Amino acid sequence: MVEKEVTLNSGHKMPVVGLGTWQSSPGEIGQVIKTALDIGYRHFDCAQVYGNEAEIGEALEEYFKASSTVKRENVFITSKIWNTFHSFEKCSEAVEETLKRFRTSYLDLVLIHWPHGFQEGGELFPKVGDEIQYSDVDYLETWKALEKKVDEGKIRSIGLSNFNKDQIQRIIDEGKIRPAVLQIEVNLYFHQIVLRDFCEANRVAITAYSPLGSPGRPEWMKKGVDTPAQIVLRWDIQKGLAVIPKSTNETRLRENLEIFDFELQEDDMAQLNQFDCNLRLINIADRDGHHKYFPWPKKEVRSGS
Ligand SMILES: NC(=O)c1ccc[n+]([C@@H]2O[C@H](COP(=O)([O-])OP(=O)(O)OC[C@H]3O[C@@H](n4cnc5c(N)ncnc54)[C@H](OP(=O)(O)O)[C@@H]3O)[C@@H](O)[C@H]2O)c1
């Protein structure tokens, strides 16, 4: 049996299925959030860099006011600290701004979006010509700012996104609070078994992003796969992962949440396990791979199917 919530090492509970909000347009996302709440979503995966948090915050506030049953405490809100906010001061400011966008006194989970930083103080993607401008702020400094916000009661759980094993270990060794969640890409072609085993051994819960493989991407289409989304999502949650599929379509929103009333048998799971070929879809190594904190090698070996 798969539980609908996972208890994080912080003691707080996180719904296993959440709604992804990347590439959900401003002007559209507010209504999507209300529809998702009607359908039963209670976990929203957001980020400063997605540019739609203010509209999500407004929609949530309106919904809580109108509803007699769904209130702030029934909803799990995740946000992420963007690369241009890695210094202690900037990260602290970013959390305060995020609280304002969500019109709330606390966030359920805040992740460091990437381990490597960009130049602070200006654009989200600071550039000279075509070249991104970086910073070398240590992600441990960002972590300490988040820990302080936990102490202040403004964040309940903190975690990481796109960090590698050594970087997570360093946070565990040198930080005060253990990361509650690691958010990474996991889908049918990219299983991340080593990192997942490491997290399991260290009591760090995993959330799978792009769980449907961001359909429409050329790499995915080339593979010609047509596995129903519910099967893929069920495969994830049976492996103990949380999932955050994105949809702005009511039918697909429903479909993606209705994965608790059936079970994949061992041989189904074994078949799906065979698809792994180390095909990473969200890969910015060509752009950022030279940064000393970039989390994975510039060139990765493809394998399998
Ligand atoms: N931490 C990070 O660095 C990071 C990186 C990437 C993503 N994320 C998070 O993970 C979330 C999900 O990842 P993603 O948006 O890349 O991709 P995804 O959830 O794997 O796929 C989303 C795409 O699948 C379509 N879709 C949704 N449900 C479907 C269904 N039942 N059947 C067929 N197609 C379906 C959606 O279209 P419709 O909207 O038209 O349904 C959309 O085009 C993001 O929104 C974001 O919150 C985090």
From TrEMBL:
<dbReference type="InterPro" id="IPR036812">
    <property type="entry name" value="NAD(P)_OxRdtase_dom_sf"/>
</dbReference>
<feature type="binding site">
    <location>
        <position position="113"/>
    </location>
    <ligand>
        <name>substrate</name>
    </ligand>
</feature>
<protein>
    <submittedName>
        <fullName>NADP-dependent oxidoreductase domain-containing protein</fullName>
    </submittedName>
</protein>
<dbReference type="Pfam" id="PF00248">
    <property type="entry name" value="Aldo_ket_red"/>
</dbReference>
<dbReference type="InterPro" id="IPR020471">
    <property type="entry name" value="AKR"/>
</dbReference>
<keyword id="KW-0521">NADP</keyword>
<feature type="domain" description="NADP-dependent oxidoreductase">
    <location>
        <begin position="222"/>
        <end position="275"/>
    </location>
</feature>
<keyword id="KW-0560">Oxidoreductase</keyword>
<feature type="site" description="Lowers pKa of active site Tyr">
    <location>
        <position position="80"/>
    </location>
</feature>
<feature type="domain" description="NADP-dependent oxidoreductase">
    <location>
        <begin position="18"/>
        <end position="221"/>
    </location>
</feature>
<dbReference type="GO" id="GO:0016491">
    <property type="term" value="F:oxidoreductase activity"/>
</dbReference>
<feature type="active site" description="Proton donor">
    <location>
        <position position="50"/>
    </location>
</feature>
<dbReference type="InterPro" id="IPR023210">
    <property type="entry name" value="NADP_OxRdtase_dom"/>
</dbReference>
<comment type="similarity">
    <text>Belongs to the aldo/keto reductase family.</text>
</comment>
<dbReference type="InterPro" id="IPR018170">
    <property type="entry name" value="Aldo/ket_reductase_CS"/>
</dbReference>
